[in-house]
Amino acid sequence: MVITSNFKPTSYWWEAAPIGPANAVTPPPGVDVAVVGYGITGAHAALAVARAGRSVVVLEADGIGSGSSRRNNGAIVPYLFQKQYELEARFGKVQGTEIARIAVDAVDFLLETCDELGIHAQVRGFDRYFLALTDKHREKMYHSCALQAESSVNTGWVPISAEDLQERTGLSGYAGSIFVSNSLTFHPGIYHQGVIKAAEDAGAVTVAYNPVTSVRSTTNGTLLSTPKGQVLAKDVIVATNGYTGAPFNYAKDGLMSVRIYNSATEPLPDGNKAAQFAARHLLVDSSPTSPGSGQVRTANAFL
Ligand SMILES: Cc1cc2nc3c(=O)[nH]c(=O)nc-3n(C[C@H](O)[C@H](O)[C@H](O)COP(=O)(O)OP(=O)(O)OC[C@H]3O[C@@H](n4cnc5c(N)ncnc54)[C@H](O)[C@@H]3O)c2cc1C
Q1: pLDDT for 155 beyond 60
Q2: Measured in angstroms, how far is the CA atom of residue 83 from the centroid of ligand 1?
Q3: Nearest CA to ligand 1 atom 3
Q4: What is the C-alpha to C-alpha distance for residues 245 and 109, in angstroms, rounded to an integer?
Q5: What's the CA angle centered on 74, arms 170 and 272, to 5 degrees?
Q6: In angstroms, what is the span from residue 242 Cα to ligand 1's centroid?
Q7: Given a cut of 90, is residue 176 above it in pLDDT?
Q8: In this structure, what are the phi and psi dihedrals at residue 189, rounded to the nearest 5 degrees?
Q9: Nearest partner of 95 among 108, 106, 86, 105, judged by Cα
Q10: Ligand 1 in contact with 27 (CB < 6 A)?
Q11: pLDDT class for 303, splitting at 50, 70, 90?
Q12: Distance 206 CA to ligand 1 centre (A)
């Protein structure tokens, strides 16, 4: 539903970091490594491979950075949605801990990459509050917090009461909250653009609007077919997403597609911005759209 006359379906991130053209029109016939998909995963893969001295081509189905890497919220958090105790129950203690640790390491990696490549991705800290809708919801959140407090990887989650929440944020009507202090925001468009520039400077060849339509193993490597030509690659890195088509159905089976939309308010007048976002509190209210529907509307509000 379009609710304003100046609605636009494009991402704000694209404006400050426009999607540039690819540096090649057609792919080379043979390479050491083909990377499929040029989101942030593909960009980092291409950078690492090119720096290791191997020839690399990146094949992107759409425009560069048109996937979720430049459409997201720009939140950087040192935890996954699955908690360490849940990961340990599922994968065992060692592997569960390693997976939880990856989220912490990823934040360090991102900050180090910004420093090393000179990317000014507007990294800033913010406080996040997960809001409890009912007493039962609060008890569940607090229980999760207590289990996380016993975990070896510190997520920095702290339970706070409804009164404390109101005092800190002025927000009433919630049963309590989880306060998370160690979150960051950044500009994913600028970051992605910086990594792509580094990958291309290191020698990565990129071809956009060129989906991989079939993949075939041969005795000399893997043959990838695209509308702009075939590429024979010794190794292939699949960096597509959950929506990729037939050639990567095997990967699709291991991923769960979720429908997720971001909508933003109209731009605020400059004078208002500092006042509106002064405290940098992000409030997360995940209410069901209707009881028992299984659908959740997550409202993120910055105060
Ligand atoms: C609305 C939204 C909000 C989000 N908010 C956050 C957040 O705040 N913090 C956070 O950490 N994460 C967030 N995420 C998740 C995050 O954006 C993704 O995990 C991340 O961008 C994935 O990067 P990627 O490179 O794997 O995929 P993508 O950026 O989606 O790139 C995959 C690319 O592969 C290409 N491709 C697909 N099939 C083919 C093919 N056959 N041939 C060639 N190319 C192909 C696609 O065109 C696409 O460009 C959010 C995601 C969404 C959608």
Answers
A1: yes
A2: 22
A3: 72
A4: 30
A5: 45
A6: 8
A7: yes
A8: -65, -45
A9: 86
A10: no
A11: very low
A12: 17
Ligand 1 atom nearest to CA at 247: 41
What pLDDT, in 10s, does the model give residues 82-121?
A: 889 999 999 999 999 999 999 889 999 999 999 999 999 9
Tell me how far apart the 2 most distant CA atoms of the chain are, in Å.
68
Which residue, judged by its Cα, is nearest atom 49 of ligand 1? 67
Ligand 1 contact via 11 beta carbon (within 6 Å) = no
Count of all residues that appear for the chain in the document: 303
Structural domains in the chain, sorted by start: 23-74+187-258 (3.50.50.60)
From 79, 241, 255, give the residue whose CB has the most ligand 1 atoms within 8 Å, as the site to mutate: 241
Q: 62 CB less than 6 Å from ligand 1?
A: yes
226 Cβ below 6 A of ligand 1: no
Pocket test residue of 11, 47, 59, 69 for ligand 1, highest count of atoms within 8 A of CB: 69
Three-state helix/strand/coil letters over the chain:
CCCCCCCCCCCCHHHHCCCCCCCCCCCCCEEEEEEECCCHHHHHHHHHHHHCCCCEEEECCCCCCCCHHHCCCCEECCCCCCCHHHHHHHHCHHHHHHHHHHHHHHHHHHHHHHHHHCCCCCCEEEEEEEEECCHHHHHHHHHHHHHHHCCCCCCCEEEECHHHHHHHHCCCCCCEEEEEEEEEECCHHHHHHHHHHHHHHCCCEEECCCCCCEEEEECCEEEEEECCEEEEEEEEEECCCCCCCHHHHHHHCCCCCCCCCCCCCCCCCHHHHHHHCCCCEEEEEEEECCCCCCCEEEEEEEC
Give the residue with greater pLDDT, 292 vs 97.
97
